[in-house]
Design brief:
By secondary structure, the protein is α+β, with helices and mostly antiparallel strands. It has twelve helices and 18 strands.
């Protein structure tokens, strides 16, 4: 029977491999690339777990993590959190605290579903890199190879108080959209009156992007790093190359093979009792107020974005993260080559400032950011640690040196007034009692690639 919100530790040796728990008839037919048959969704939510002490971490020190999260909850700064830490493929910490939905009196459970916002980006970037491995493009190919609407772009510049348009020095490439260096988000005030009047909506991602295809760029591709809608172009490229809608591609090529049974663009009505409410800071004390209650859409969306849109659980995102940490494979299912994973977690942006982190301590790869200068970082994580976060407070880190995945799930639309997300990795790292820093490293990015 499935048990929600329960963390149980056993010795590593007492657990069957996860493949035996969650998958049956894996690769039953020869040559089947993604042949998975889940015994049941409930079984797929079972995680391989071990006592922290078995993997060089401390149960007592994890209590510090729990206590810090509880302080934020008690201060009414966040409704609830789920934290997950895994080492060497085994979950050593899984904790639900606070409420999923305060107004309904619903406590948080470890398998509750969160809107992950920009944590959609690494998944969609992975999808495009799977097509890269099939030979459909090179990283420095122009995206106009599959999206002719985006050929021959102009750049809009503000010079001496005036607006000038010039031809882009170079085309937008696959590398540019994967690294947020494409310049696809020009300032609205620099657009023409006709462009400002162009509808920004659209029932599908393709309709929205094609409508904006004539818009100028904010800068010459590759000259700056500017966080924005680049991964929407990644998503449309997946659709154009594969001939499938993004939701179908992700479900068939990533979610089902990895057993990510609770990751959706449209969360089924049967799971609404596990959807987490979103809160916002309010008033002088920034205490929380309800922003959106758990609900399912009356009409399923047809807009499958790359920048955001997915909902998921800590357990599902662990599976995705562990696949990346393993070099593209999980439980006998290989989605990527280790060489491709290394390419993705390598800094492709040189010394361009990744300003969203608040310090020049990070580089950006193909869907992930990575720590390059620990002396400038606010988090005490290992150099080469990579990951990303979402606008509602979710965040994940993958540490190849310590062979560790860390995931924080919360739902706050506004959290700049407290440091919970910065505290989380520090509290995870202090729970390590046996460091692997001098041992054999797992998957790790290559040396920085010059721009």
């Amino acid at each position: 029977m499935e048990k929600r919100g329960l963390t149980t530790y056993r010795k590593v040796s007492e657990w069957r491999p996860l493949a035996q728990i969650t998958f049956v008839a894996m690769f039953a037919a020869a040559g089947c690339a993604t042949g998975t048959a889940l015994s049941s969704p409930a079984d797929a939510r079972i995680l391989p777990m071990a006592a922290p002490e078995d993997l060089g971490m401390s149960s007592e020190r994890f209590e510090r993590l729990d206590a810090a999260m509880q302080r934020y909850i008690d201060a009414d700064m966040v409704a609830g959190v789920v934290t997950l830490v895994a080492r060497k493929g085994e979950v050593v910490h899984l904790k639900a605290q606070g409420h999923r939905y305060i107004e309904g009196g619903d406590r948080m459970s470890t398998d509750d579903i969160f809107v992950i916002m920009s944590m959609t980006k690494p998944i969609v970037s992975t999808a495009l890199m799977m097509l890269f491995e099939e030979g459909y493009f090179l990283l420095d190919d122009p995206i106009s190879k599959y999206m002719p609407e985006f050929a021959d772009k102009e750049v809009v510049l503000e010079i001496d108080g005036g607006v000038q348009r010039v031809q882009a020095d170079r085309p937008i490439t696959f590398r540019h959209v994967l690294t947020h260096t494409a310049g696809v988000d020009p300032a609205r005030n620099l657009l023409s009156e006709e462009e400002r009047a162009t509808p920004r909506g659209g029932a599908t991602l393709e309709e929205r992007l094609v409508a904006q295809g004539s818009f100028p760029l904010a800068f010459h591709p590759g000259d700056e790093w500017r966080y924005g809608s680049s991964t929407n172009y990644v998503a449309l490229l997946v659709e154009r190359i594969s001939g499938q809608s993004l939701d179908v591609f992700l479900r068939e090529r990533i979610f089902e093979p990895l057993g990510m049974v609770d990751t959706h663009y449209n969360v089924p009505a049967s799971k609404v009792d596990r959807v987490t409410a979103v809160y916002s800071p309010s008033g002088p004390g920034n205490t929380i107020e309800l922003r959106s209650a758990p609900a399912t859409r009356e009409q399923p969306t047809r807009y499958f974005g790359g920048t955001a849109g997915l909902s998921s659980t800590a357990g599902d995102y662990f599976r995705f993260s562990q696949m990346i940490l393993n070099g593209g494979e999980l439980n006998g299912v290989r989605l990527l080559s280790p060489t491709t994973v290394n390419l993705m977690i390598t800094n492709h942006t040189g010394d361009l400032p990744i300003y969203i982190k608040g310090a020049d301590a990070y580089g950006f790869g193909l869907g992930f950011t990575m720590l390059t200068d620990p002396d400038r970082s606010r988090q005490a994580v290992t150099p080469g640690t990579f990951g990303w976060g979402g606008a509602y407070g979710t965040v994940f880190w993958i540490d190849p040196v310590e062979d560790m995945v860390s995931i924080l799930m919360m739902q706050m639309a506004g959290y700049g007034h407290f440091t919970l997300r910065q505290d989380f990795p520090n509290l995870v790292m202090q729970a390590i009692t046996e460091s692997y820093h001098s041992g054999k490293q797992a998957i790790r990015g290559y040396e920085p690639i010059p721009r």
